Amino acid sequence: MQILTEFKKRDKLKIKHLDCGYGFKRRLAELGLFESVEVEIIKNDNFGPLIIKIFDSKIALGRGEAQKIYAQKI
Amino acid sequence: MLKKYNLTVGLTGNPNVGKSTLFNALTGSKQHVGNWPGKTVEKKEGEFSFEGKKIQLVDLPGSYSLTAYSEEETITSNFILQEKPDVVVQIIDAQNFARNLFITIQLIELGTPLVVALNMVDLAKMSGISIKIEELSKLLGVPVVVISARKQVGIDDLLRAILKKRDTKNKLRIKLTYGTEINEELKKIKDFIKSKEKIDKQELDWFSLKLLEGDYRAEQNLIKKPYYLELKSLIQKSINHLQNIFGKDIISILANTRYGFIEGLARKVVDRKKIKQRISFSEKFDNVATNRFFGIPLFLFVIFLIFQATFKLSEPIMGWIELLFGFLGNNISSLLASRGFSNLFISLINEGIIGGVGGVLVFMPIIGILFLLIALLEDSGYMARVAYIMDKLMNKIGLHGKAFIPLILGFGCNVPAIMATRTLETKEDRLLTILINPFISCGARLPVYVLFVGVFFSAYQGLVIFSLYLLGIVVAILMGLIFKKFLFKKSSSPFVIELPSYRWPTLKGLLIHSGERVWLFIKKAGTVILAFSVIIWALASLPAGVDYGSKQSWAGSMGQSVAPVFQPLGFDNWQSSVALIFGFVAKEVVVGTFGTLYGVDDVESSSGIESLNSALQNDFTPLSAYAFMIFVLLYVPCMAVLAVVKKETGSWKWPLFMIFYTTGIAWIVAFIFYQGGKLLGFE
Lengths: 74, 683
Description:
Chain A has two helices and six strands. By secondary structure, chain A is α+β, with helices and mostly antiparallel strands. Chain B is of the alpha/beta class. Chain B has 29 helices and nine strands. Chain B has a six-stranded mixed beta sheet with strand order 2-3-1-4-5-7, with helices on both faces. Chain B is elongated, with a radius of gyration of 30 Å.
């Protein structure tokens, strides 16, 4: 299990754990990001927000926020 | 009560699914298409007729869920629960079918009389997604109509479905099963509420589910009940129990169940063909727009083009408006004079009222054109990329990625810049961005710099002006950090935004949007600006008989009594104090005021400039001139800015605070500069 920011472009992942507050968790769930969902990293420049493909949409996620999300490569 | 409409229809859906485009197509009313998630906080309504029925259409803010997370999201669920519309239309973007269904499920669970409008089916087909419409309608138990909001295809079918929906009561309603464990816990909650309260079954189902999710709105409803604490601990026990069984948090458990249902449904109705993945133009563009090296230069270039276009296009129009008002003023003055009105009254009409109205209207072209271009950036999907590339930088100074746009706009004019803070989601982020915005040097301050730089720094004009712009940015950043530390301790809202696919905005949408902004400005800010204009006029012309703005006028005596305050800053002549007072109307007025006070008729003619220059050289040294420019840069923003701050924050508290804190900062910075310069021997 690694944090989201450690993955690279085109990595396909399964979300394992969200270590953030209640409100933000719910917000992410609405966008399709929750435990056990599969996502793909579209962009990770090692600074600034990440771009992740969740279902069929691109979501930009702040780096600080991404550091609270754990995932596993599939 | 007589009902004005035959039926009321709510329009909902995820952001960027074409909701506003459909709204515009149906009502043609004032409304705008945005690309920021959840941009329209106000409730927008329109009306139209179809088959002899008068239909009221309510545009609900775009949202991803019915659970109350932000202010906008309570609006949608409140509307459906309390105002009970006859029909709710949800627009679904066929390209992102699964995610869109998340809210569909919640709407159905809520018992909403729902009609689904499936939009962008053609685009979905191009990427290999085709949807079996009838199958989908059967499985959801709601009518599904294929439309194209942009091409206005299928609109009549949709309207017929709406009318039909109203006449048939919900019989077939799918029920999502959450599985034995969750159902057991839900039953405990329901049984408890049922024992305390008489409540409709459907409402009970919804309410208990929301309580398990920790919905803010549901909790607020409960908090006053005598059994609140008892129920609360029951819910908490249920949550702990479920989290233990599933080994994940309650939100993920429920989301999994819902998406599980959606996946099952999608397997039955969606055909996904593998289409040869050609990299589309929009992908290529996106690679540049979000590139870590090219992203920012591209954006700066785009902003440069927008500034050029805005100011080049609006300049002549502003000239015409000024001419028109000058012409009006002169003619009305001579008309009034021929009827024997007193000079004072004529001056009030001419300088105070006509000048004031002109001062409001002269902003129209800038706001109209600038917002048209910004709407183009927003609606095309580019603005979300800007927020993405700027987030890192902005984060360092405690601001949200989206806050960069209002700051950049401030270089043109702080008025539309402050209006643009609406794209920020939380109140704290908005307020912070508004408070530091006036330090970004707007276009109206440039004439003041040009005047002084020409007289005192002719060899280093560009450099000196650039240093002032830079100083403004530095002060804005420092103040941002200070406010963040002391005023808004809550950290800024987490950065998460959808990057919608690029598309061409519709001209109609753009025009409606910018027209709306211009109108809002005139309506709300106009009255305030007019009032200030009359006050400034009174100061300059009273007591009766004095020359406008002369030493004997109230403004003149104010200038003389204020002047000593500026002595430590190096400019204690009364003229500059009066110029600063008048600069409150608009900062470029400072230049004209110096002209009037030094008895120069035309500050734009070469002889006029000449005599103004020598007058200034008597009263200023290079050091005090620079201190004066610093003061002009930082002190109280013009009245138009204060008027929009009042409008955007909803109270006089913040504009009043702004007057004092900006002027205080201006004094301190100019003081440090002047005294420091003197110590270093620059005088």
